[in-house]
């Protein structure tokens, strides 16, 4: 029986750029919870950024694997955190700060962002996406423990990939995955979402086969490969589709919500019959 569901956010649970998940998604999360199945976003975002996506419904993000696995929350409590090393982050800052159309962003614990580089006007629509809780420009980034950081590049995919290669060479302690258009996450080298997933599974005393995960992109691959009940949405890239055991509908078609409804129904039947051998419809 599935006892925990974890889902990537952008382009998995919600199409990138949309301000809020669908009501069907929220209702499906609640249906799972009513049957004893926990739910949590598994995302590059921090928990403070998630409130607006769920209309302030904390039950949908009280549990979360955040910042690509560097922060783990359970029942609103932070149960695990790992920060970025300051020295390589400063190296990346120096490389990005003077580059036209580019910015390095770091986030405080409350979700407020700080950035160096391009002006707010240059960042255009990416400003609102990157600074949900507000942001402040600096000539030099302030010093504080940073778990979450990212790079914005407004100059097209070729320029982004060029900058990604330069950063990767200059800052070998860090990874710079291109997770959505015009954006790279900044993460600890070799550290991915699956590390946070493992921490949460240990906290809940579950086994991997009691967990179901959903994803769409390269930063989901280790999670999709580790969890037996892994699912890719129809709009996922080819790597994610290949890594996933199961496949569901597209993000824009509420593919994850429909799968959540089926997980809730399977859990209801398991609870009703006193068995754990009923599978969600998309796994049959």
Q: Would you write up a description of this structure?
A:
The chain is an alpha/beta fold and 284 residues long. The chain folds into 2 domains: 171 residues, HAD superfamily/HAD-like (Rossmann fold, 3-Layer(aba) Sandwich); 103 residues, Hypothetical Protein, Haloacid Dehalogenase-like Hydrolase, Chain: A, domain 2, CATH 3.30.1240. Helices cover 32% and strands 21% of the residues. Helix 1 links the parallel strand 1 and strand 2. Helix 1 runs parallel beside helix 9.
Task: Jot down its keywords.
elongated; alpha/beta; 21% strand; 284 residues; five-stranded parallel β-sheet; Rossmann fold; 14 strands; six-stranded mixed β-sheet; Hypothetical Protein, Haloacid Dehalogenase-like Hydrolase, Chain: A, domain 2
CATH architecture of the largest domain: 3-Layer(aba) Sandwich
| CATH-defined superfamily of the largest domain | HAD superfamily/HAD-like
Which whole number gives the mean pLDDT? 95
Secondary-structure element order, N to C:
EHEEEEHEEHHEEHEEHEHEHEH
What is the topological layout?
Blueprint: E1 4-7, H1 23-34, E2 38-41, E3 64-66, E4 71-74, E5 77-81, H2 86-97, E6 102-107, E7 113-117, H3 120-123, H4 125-130, E8 135-137, E9 149-153, H5 157-170, E10 174-175, E11 183-188, H6 193-204, E12 211-215, H7 221-226, E13 229-233, H8 238-243, E14 246-248, H9 255-273
Parallel strand pairs: 1-2, 1-12, 7-8, 12-13, 13-14
Antiparallel strand pairs: 3-4, 4-5, 6-7, 6-9, 9-11, 10-11
Quick recap:
The protein has 9 helices and 14 strands. It is of the alpha/beta class and 284 residues long. The protein has 2 domains: 171 residues, Rossmann fold (3-Layer(aba) Sandwich), CATH 3.40.50.1000; 103 residues, 2-Layer Sandwich (Hypothetical Protein, Haloacid Dehalogenase-like Hydrolase, Chain: A, domain 2), CATH 3.30.1240.10.
């Amino acid at each position: 029986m599935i006892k925990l569901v974890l889902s990537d956010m952008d382009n998995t649970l919600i199409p990138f750029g949309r301000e809020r998940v669908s009501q069907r998604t929220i209702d499906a999360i609640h249906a799972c919870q009513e049957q004893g199945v926990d739910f949590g976003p598994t995302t590059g975002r921090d928990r403070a950024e998630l409130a607006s996506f769920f209309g302030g419904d904390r039950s949908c993000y009280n549990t979360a694997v955040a910042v690509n696995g560097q922060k783990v929350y359970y029942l609103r409590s932070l149960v695990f955190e790992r920060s970025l090393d300051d020295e390589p982050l400063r190296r990346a800052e120096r490389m990005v700060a003077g580059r036209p159309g580019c910015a390095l962003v770091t986030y405080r614990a409350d979700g407020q962002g700080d950035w160096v580089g391009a002006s707010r006007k240059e960042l255009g629509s990416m400003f609102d996406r990157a600074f949900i809780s507000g942001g402040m420009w600096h000539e030099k980034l302030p010093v504080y423990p940073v778990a979450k950081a990212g790079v914005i590049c407004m100059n097209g995919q070729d320029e982004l990939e060029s900058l990604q290669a330069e950063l990767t060479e200059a800052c070998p302690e860090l990874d710079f995955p291109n997770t959505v258009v015009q954006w790279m996450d900044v993460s600890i080298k070799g550290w991915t979402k699956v590390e946070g997933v493992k921490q949460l599974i240990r906290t809940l005393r579950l086994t991997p086969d009691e967990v179901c995960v959903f994803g769409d992109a390269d930063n989901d691959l280790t999670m999709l490969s580790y969890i037996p009940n892994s699912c890719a949405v129809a709009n996922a890239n080819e790597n994610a589709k290949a890594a996933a055991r199961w496949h569901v509908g597209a993000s824009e078609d509420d593919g994850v919500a429909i799968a959540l409804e089926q997980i809730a129904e399977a859990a209801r039947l398991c609870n009703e019959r006193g068995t754990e051998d009923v599978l969600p419809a998309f796994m049959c």
